[in-house]
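Protocol step 6 of 9: fold each sequence in the batch and record its structure tokens directly after the sequence line. For illustration, a two-sequence batch is reproduced in full.

Sequence one:
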Amino acid sequence: MISLEHLNKTFGNHQALTDINTTFNAHETTVIVGPSGSGKSTLLRSLNLLERPESGIYHFNDDNIDFAKPLSSKTILNVRRKTGMVFQDYNLFPHLSVVKNVMEGPIQVLNQKPDAAKQTALDLLDKVGLADKADAYPGQLSGGQQQRVAIARSLAMNPEYILLDEPTSALDPELEAGVLRVLLALAKEDDSMIIVTHNMEFARAVADKILFVEDGKILFDGTPSEFFKQPTQRIADFLAAMTFTTISDKAK
């Protein structure tokens, strides 16, 4: 389990995160939503230590990190091995084949033998529907296919949590659907995932828990059923904007 206590993060004079307190349960999918610039990605990146809050406590199972104190390289590496990050822009190695992209981390970081790493990579590519693309190169794939390779690469590291930062934001709707189907299947397998997304229907389908973040603060922390009942006017306005309800109503 991951939990955060009183997390604060600034960028210059901008308060990006303010007194964040929440829990991310294992074997559940937490979806983080909110308007652009609200602090969603900063919160997610803090879990992988790509961002370093200035204060607060980060509990990861039995490990406790106090952000007010310096972090050792060992601590950072330990957290990153447990939290696989999937970015918006794939970050695949263009000079390596698809299967070698998935194999690289397990061989270099986990010290797996190449034959074992390759078999695992092939199994994962099959899982994300890309078994026939193992010998292709990233430049030969669509954006949606590259993102599915990135997901397979993250899974190959056996992370305790998979962190996904708007994984479909750069994709057109058809390619987005393929990636979302993979993530929905992982959620049904009770993988531990934390996802930042702008897709409300996907959030409704995949989430065990939703965080609504605005101005660096958590304004809602609860179940999808509670969230989509629009418990506050701010959430109602946000959902109307995200689903174009207001526009549709005006057009009638």
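Sequence two, same batch, same settings:
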Amino acid sequence: MMLQKTPGADLPVQRPVLVASLAIALLLVLATWREGTTRSTEAVLLGLVAGVALYHASFGFTGAWRQLAVEARSDGLRAQFLLILLTCAVSFPLLEGGDVFGRTLHGAVAPFGVSAALGALLFGVGMQFSGSCASGTLFTAGGGNTRMIATLAGFILGSVVATAHMPFWWSLPAFRAYSLVDEFGAIGAFAFTALALGAIAMLAMRRELRRYGHLEEAVWTGGLLRGPWPKTWGAIALAVVSILTLVTLTHPWGITSAFALWGAKIANGIGVPVETWPYWSGQAHRIEASVFADATSVMNFGIVAGAFLAASLAGRFAPHLRITGKALLLSICGGLLMGYGARLAYGCNIGAYIGGVISGSLHGWGWLVFGFAGSLAGIRIRSRIAGGTV
């Protein structure tokens, strides 16, 4: 497959912005170092790498699913599947073994039922409303997309509101938690995952070939530091991040639990007794503790800082403050839907979809089905509301 050069790939490095981004990255490392927990420092470093990879490869889930649905382009979807398979090749044996370097590993295995299906559906709609997913919100915000600040605010609010309602959602019917790794071992689980993803990828590729006669050309890369990267580079880099996150933090990569925590801290600060809610039972210490002690939070900070760094190296950091009212409303509503949906569905496109599948959990596959269905609905609704003007 030929590589296609991206116009404007040779913009000069923005040196003042680069210095600022490096300073922020250093301050994050120092802040976590002061907490005295190596896990948080490791999480920041992993987040920095993830932020650079996400930005340089423009590695999103929202755009990839929209391109698949509207344009029949499968490049983004295939990159997601490559990320999953590369991670599974390592995560399945590790999870089957149970520990590594003396650390007990915990896969993201959860039941899937009514609330999780609805949550994934809401998340999919929210993705298309806002034009971003969980990881996309962070890296595009770091890259200078000011509209994502509104999405993040909605994300945080939706997340903490959902925690108030969780006893009801927990009471709804659900299948038991099911792990392919536990049932069939690492080899059997990997064979199932590879065959299922391969079948979906083949169908997507056949559809693309029928429409265009060829697969989309990959993006030309001007270098590792400056980008842009082909999506396959992003998939490989993020697979490394995913594997190292499992090994160092002892659980799969997640994002949105931190948004709920941030919302709880804010609510607690203004007098809302969130610590009395069943969701936060036994977690009052997290609400009171420094945010830099929470590994998921600081990894998210690292993603934003890493994207900021990547944007400065690419010469593309250029925030735009002019946002239409329609775009702002869609961004906030999208964030609210994603935040609320993520709590119901055990996470987002990273924590529930990627994290679930690379743990061998069937709830990850359920999230994929209902998240994609929600995305299709969101594309149609957004098109009618926005008329293509946002």
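Proceed to step 7 once all outputs are recorded. Observation for sequence two: Residues 11 and 206 are 36 Å apart (CA to CA).
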